[in-house]
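Hey, I was hoping to borrow your eyes for a little while. I'm sending you its amino acid sequence along with the backbone structure tokens. Take your time with it, there's no hurry, and the full record follows here.
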Amino acid sequence: MLLRQEGDAAGAPLLVVLASAPDEGVTAGISINDFLTPVIYLSSPAKMTLQVGLSYFRGQFNTEWNLLMAGTVIAVLPVLVLYMVAQRYFVQGIALAGLKG
């Protein structure tokens, strides 16, 4: 049930959905292309991305969890280091965005 405010148009919920549709499309496109495009187009394992390489540790009947987790940690480390280096700028941007004036 939607609560209506005075002056609220009947199509306001539809407007919110339509306004967020491009963002959702971009997000879905990026997440799919990160994995499917290399799987489809690349035939040499030397040229595949890290995510595709990690998927090879999952077999039909077993999963090499130790290798999969080690590869995942290696994949996440550069992002964590970048965040730790730039953390002060992230916090500063969030603090400035909350100020009026």
